[in-house]
TrEMBL record:
It comes from Timema californicum. Residues 125-209 are annotated as: Disordered. One of its GO terms (cellular component) is Golgi to plasma membrane transport vesicle. Residues 30-78 form a coiled coil. GO terms for biological process: exocytosis. Residues 23-107 form the GDP/GTP exchange factor Sec2 N-terminal domain. This is (California timema) hypothetical protein. Gene3D superfamilies: 1.20.5.4880. GO terms for molecular function: guanyl-nucleotide exchange factor activity. InterPro entries: RAB3IL/RAB3IP/Sec2, Sec2_N. Keywords: Coiled coil. Belongs to the SEC2 family.
Amino acid sequence: MMRRTGFDPGRADGTQLLSSVANTWDRALADMKEQAFSRLQDELQKAHQELKLRDEEVTRLSRIREEVESELEELTASLFQEAHNMVREANVRQAAAEKAFKESQMQVEVLVAEVAALKTLVLTSTPSRPNPHLHPQIDPNRAKDDASISGVSLFTRKHRRSPSHFNLKYGRENSPPESPVKECRTSLPEPVISDSKDGYEVSEGQKTS
């Protein structure tokens, strides 16, 4: 009959097996954790890289947007200035055109009035009674004025008075002062004729002469 001791070889083998399995499991878990951590680190690094690229893209797009907005503002200001200049030039041209139109209209009115006056003169002029305004040569007042003006000018330029002119104008008795005819007439007595029965009687002045 065998004697039992406290050592059990089967039980010892089971304990060792469980210990090795536990160690293997722990190593496997550690490896899995390490792999998962490494994978997460890679993903995080990739995410950071993508975020950095996106930030750079956003910065570039923001700069492009600012440039486009600035160019748009400049273009808008230029368009407004050009439109303002065009409106101002159009107003100036319109004012000049209106002024020219008014002046031409006034000239047309003056010409129409002159034509109407000429028509009136033509209609009032007949062969029997011609209008002096249309025929200045038949105007008697104008002819007299021209004749008087020409006669006076001709007389003042060419006519000279002779001594006989004074004799004809004043007579031999009324000769102008300092005239030889007047001096001769004053020295001679005038004859006196009176009526008598025997005929004509001569004055004493004539007898003595």
